[in-house]
UniProtKB/TrEMBL annotation:
Species of the source: Aegilops tauschii subsp. strangulata
Biased composition (Polar residues): 24-38
InterPro entries (alphabetical): STK19-like (IPR018865)
Region of interest (Disordered), ranges: 1-38
Protein name: Serine/threonine-protein kinase 19
Family to which the UniProt record says this protein belongs: Belongs to the STK19 family.
Length: 228
């Protein structure tokens, strides 16, 4: 059984930039204008981002559970003590398209944080499964990735806005939205059927386990149960 994840702490508070090498100036002049730099050059490494990256590397590989790593927001709050700064960092990272935040349907007021690259991999797997079952209307997945995800950073979206964004790709109809829901990319809200949660495909088994665990280290406790 793995040891518990210790609360994250940083010896120096605030934000850190990647150290520049002597060749950075020469390299940056090739293929870029003065006003255009790479994400890596500009990325600010805050305590929040470092903690997220650390917890991502410790996400277990579980048999019969195929999902990319994600972190509970409550777990992040327990690891980085400045909650206000965590919220600010998360908003900044969402705007920079580094990660997305998802409301979890566990009965708990918690959210999952997933790096964007991981989410797109998870989405790709869901799309392949969905296309294998039904080729009709599969163009909606491209519309969703190209027009909806970059424009809507919140955890939810209403029906009219969803249709409006999808319509940039084509004639969006209810059958397209149904396909997105069947693929696990959207979940209709129970209290308002005109609202949808953005969701992570294929994490149902993990969420089922999460609802049975109630400790301050909610996610780690669930992992312990699976590993025992």
């Amino acid at each position: 059984m793995a040891e518990p994840w210790p609360p994250y702490s940083s010896s120096s508070r605030g934000k850190k930039k990647r150290p520049r090498s002597p060749n950075d100036d020469a390299t940056s002049s090739q293929g870029r204008t003065e006003n255009s730099t790479s994400l890596e050059d500009n990325l600010i490494f805050s305590d929040t981002l470092i903690a997220l990256q650390l917890m991502r590397t410790q996400f277990p590989k579980l048999e019969k559970v195929v999902t990319q790593p994600f972190i509970l927001q409550s777990q992040l709050y327990s690891s980085v003590k400045d909650r206000t700064q965590v919220d600010r960092d998360l908003e900044s990272l969402k705007k920079d398209r580094v990660l997305r935040v998802f409301k979890l349907n566990t009965g708990q007021d918690d959210h999952a944080i997933m790096f964007m690259d991981d989410y797109l991999k998870q989405m790709e797997s869901a799309v392949r499964r969905s296309k294998g079952k039904n080729q009709d209307c599969s163009e909606v997945f491209e519309w969703f990735e190209k027009y909806v995800l970059p424009s809507k950073l919140d955890v939810s979206i209403d029906h009219l806005e969803l249709c409006s964004l999808l319509s940039h790709g084509g004639d969006a109809r209810d059958k397209h939205i149904t396909l997105l829901m069947n693929a696990g990319l959207l979940t209709r809200q129970l209290i308002d059927p005109n609202m949808y949660w953005f969701s992570i495909p294929s994490i149902g088994p993990i969420l089922k386990g999460l609802t049975q665990v109630c400790t301050s280290w909610l996610f780690y406790s669930f992992v312990q149960i699976l590993w025992c």
